[in-house]
Amino acid sequence: MKRLKKIHEILKKEGLDALLISSSANIQYLTYFSGFFNGERDAFLVITKTKNYLLTDKRYSGSLGDLDEFEILDEGALRTLKSDFFKKNRIRTLGFESKDLKVYEYSLLKNRLKTKEVDLDYVREVKEDAELQQIQNACSLADKAFGFILKKIKTGISEQEIAFEIEHYIKRSGQDISFSPIVAFGPNSSVPHHKSGPKKLKKDEIVLIDFGAKFNSYCSDITRTVFFGKADNTFRKVYETVLNAQQLAIDKININARLSDIDKTARDYIKREGFLNIPHAIGHGVGLEVHELPHVSPYSKEKMVENQIFTVEPGIYIENWGGIRIEDVVLVGKNGPQLITDSNRSLIEI
Ligand code: GLY
Ligand code: MN
Question: Taking 90 as the threshold, does the pLDDT of residue 39 lie above it?
Answer without folding.
Answer: no
